[in-house]
Amino acid sequence: MAEARSAALNASIEAYDPNAFFDAGFDPNVSVFGNLGFVAANVVLALIIEHGLEIVEKVVEHHPMYYRLLSKMYQELMVGGFTAFISKRIQQWNILSNDNEAMVNASDDMVLYYGLAIALQSMFMSWRLRKHNTQVDKLSIMTSQELRDELTLPGDTKHVVALPPIYQSVIKMKIIRRYFLDAFELPELFSFPKYLRAIQDSEIIQLFDIELFAWILMVGVYVAFFAVCGAVYHIPLAPEHDPTYSEAERILRTRLLVLFMFIFTLGLAMFGLNLYLKRCVHWIVEHASKSEAEDHHLVAALERIAAEEATLQRDETPESAIARMTAIANELSDRPDHSTIWALLQTLGRKCMGRAHKKTDRHLALSKLALPFFSRKLLHVVIKLMLNLNAMYLALVLQSFFTAIRPSIAYASQLWYPGIQIALICALAVNMGYIAPRIVGRMALVNATVRVNSAELKASVEHCAEVLETREKMVAALVAFTNTHLKSLADMEAELKLQDDKGTGFVEIDVLRHAIKRYGFKFSRNKFNTFVRLQFKTKGTTVQYEPFFKVLFSTVDQQELRATQIGDEDLIHTASKVSFAIRDQPDAPQR
For 485-578, where are the E strands, in sequence order? Predict the structure, then answer.
């Protein structure tokens, strides 16, 4: 009788799930103190992750593209988190059998890994492109003549040194820039590198978007993968009994081989597409320079551009140039550019029915530039599909790798399995870190040239206008910093003179930018390059710093005068302190 009561009591206690925190202690192995300890550990982990994300957000908040990528990553993590939450509830409620629960867990893991793979791939690509763009931007500030002089051997104006790859990229950009400005009647002030970077950023953001067709493609690719695996060694997709150890090993080796062939085929396709886009850039350069794209022809074309730029009208004010760019941007269509699979199907449908969109006159300006087999929208879709496939394969390998680590450590005979998976991850990393950035960079250059992007053109115009307004903000920040840290602007000038060992009056543009940053105002490289080009004399990658300080002191005086007129005592006091501090310095330039 007592045993029956004990059994009934145990049965009633088992009705309470010890996985619930509220029911802790009903199972001797799941104690209250144990649960509290794990809660504390999870809180610490959550705080570490939250603090890490705050640091990342502070770093990327000044880079709009990185911030948008981070927001996209949050979105994909939320999708993965919700699918994991639903599968966990299914498991707790025993809706499915144990085998089905295992399949649900594996599938929701794949959704999460796919989103993470897309995020990782986009971040890696943008970092690689940014690294290359930084090198190009340092040289693109130079005029065509300065670049030509740097490539000429000392004492020999007829022969040039062999062009390093980075100089080839800069010269090609100079040639395409000149062609683009002439075709769309844009002023010299227009920042083609800024326009190109904006299109690159837009490309990466679009590639990050996981549309409906991408999810369908993921299912289709995985079906094809297992179907091919089954066809190679006649492995049934639904075996009637559990495989033996040798059979399981044969299945794994077959699947790894098939996955390697899938990755290898994708790598070849991406490499071929990269070669085609490289050829497209080559054709554009030949068309723009009206010559071959070999090294000596590139330098000759650069020399012609330098001569042309020397004869251009130089008396156009920044304000009139911005007004002209704004007028051109307003003539362009505001119709958004959708390079998705669905948009491609819509375009094909319109063309089959003879209802294609009419192009504006500005688009017709580049009608003579015919690239063989080039379709902007089709190439966008192909690139997106390739990068999605790369992320899908990476998700498949990562999920399998993290699952296989523990058994492989326990059984040394299984170490070959994660070893091969690491090799596959390295192959996919080559695709995303070497080939993909080149594809995206070249596609952006081709896309930016063959058809003007009205949204990014307007953004570049706004960028120039914003730079003109930045001077006031910069002076205010420098004045506030000098007052707070008991320094003067003359101290800043003295620091720069120390960088000018030969007394040429010029310092590296990046040196001036970092000096301004140390004194309380941060410039992005592109914005600072435009700021320098708008107002100061440059020589190669250097800028004359005395005119910079004359403009700085003049702006301080203007702020002091304006403050006097409006009666702002605080501003008068601040500006006067800076003004007197400048005048007290013996080496301060005359204003």
Answer: 506-508, 538-539, 542-544
Phi, psi (rounded to 5 degrees) for 544 = -75, 120
Q: Give the per-residue pLDDT at 427.
A: 94
Phi, then psi, of 27 in degrees rounded to 5: -105, 125
3-state secondary structure of 19: coil
CA dist., res. 453 & res. 266, Å (int):
30
Nearest to 453 by CA among 328, 342, 332, 338: 332
Residue 566 reports pLDDT greater than 60: no
8 Å CB contact between 324 and 470: no
Which residue, among 481, 482, 493, has the nearest Cα to 551 in the 3D structure? 493
496-520 per-position pLDDT tens digit: 888 887 778 888 888 888 888 888 8
Are the beta carbons of 171 and 300 closer than 8 angstroms? no
Amino acid 3: pLDDT: 57
- Give me the sign of the Cα torsion angle 380, 384, 385, 390: positive
Distance CA 303, CA 305 (A): 5
Q: Where are the alpha helices (DSSP H) in 435-488?
A: 436-450, 454-484
CA dist 123 and 130 (Å) reads 10
CB of 442 closer than 8 Å to CB of 281: yes
CA distance 270 to 148: 34
* Under 8 Å between Cβ of 201 and 444: no
**Residue 68, SS3 per DSSP:** helix
- C-alpha dist (Å) from residue 144 to 75, 107, 174, 182, 262: 44, 56, 7, 16, 46
| Tokens encoding 384 | 């997106």
The structure's pTM equals: 0.74
* Residue 448 to residue 180: CA distance in whole angstroms: 9
Distance CA(238)–CA(546), nearest Å, equals 78
Pairing mode, strands 542-544 and 506-508: antiparallel
Domains of the chain: 142-152+161-351+377-452 (no CATH), 460-578 (1.10.238)
What is the distance between the alpha carbons of residues 69 and 201, in angstroms, rounded to a whole number? 10
Percentage of the chain beyond pLDDT 70 is 74
pLDDT band at 439 (very low <50, low <70, confident <90, very high): very high
Which single residue is written with the structure tokens 């990229």?
169
CA distances to 2, 181, 312 from 460, rounded to whole Å, are 85, 13, 22
What's the length of the chain? 591
Please report, to the nearest 10 degrees, the dihedral formed by the alpha carbons of residues 263, 264, 266, 269 taken in order: 170
CA 128, 383, 389, 262: dihedral to nearest 10 degrees? -100
Contact at 8 Å (CB) between 494 and 587? Answer: yes
Q: CA angle, 548 as apex, 545 and 552 as ends, to 5°? A: 140
Query: Cα dihedral angle (256, 207, 171, 167), rounded to 10 degrees?
Result: -40
Evaluate the CA torsion angle 16, 17, 18, 24 in order and state its sign.
negative
